[in-house]
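Subgroup meeting minutes
Present: P.N., E.W., G.H.
Scribe: E.W.

1. P.N. recapped why we're keeping a running log of single-chain structure predictions: easier to compare across weeks, and new members can see raw inputs and outputs side by side.
2. G.H. added today's entry (134 aa).
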Amino acid sequence: MPDAPKLEEIYGRRMKRFLRKPIGPYSHAIRARNLAKGGLLFIAGQIALDKDDRVVGAGDIVRQYEAILDQIAMILEDAGGSLDQVVKLVHYVAMDVSSSRYLEEIYPRISDVRRRCFKTKRFPVSSNAIAVLL
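Output recorded in log:
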């Protein structure tokens, strides 16, 4: 029987410098790994807030999503990975994005990733991700 994966909270140097602390008793990311191989990185819901709790790109869904992708990239870098290792990305958006420039400007950046988009009321834009670290 294979060894159970080891769970490790990720909160690296860049994240401490640029990301706000998670809201509540959460982690930005948890890595599950087997010592002989890479692992999976589960990135918790990221929102468009800077370290000082200011909304990034207020009223601009594309700017907010770019900020979230930057946060996800930073988390991946601190975990030893990159955006090309993301295998699933889930977006929660507080508006209908079917005909917005969101689809034209953001989706091409992540076109090789399995993604889902849901309408929400809580935050204007929020995303979580799963990456395979090699």
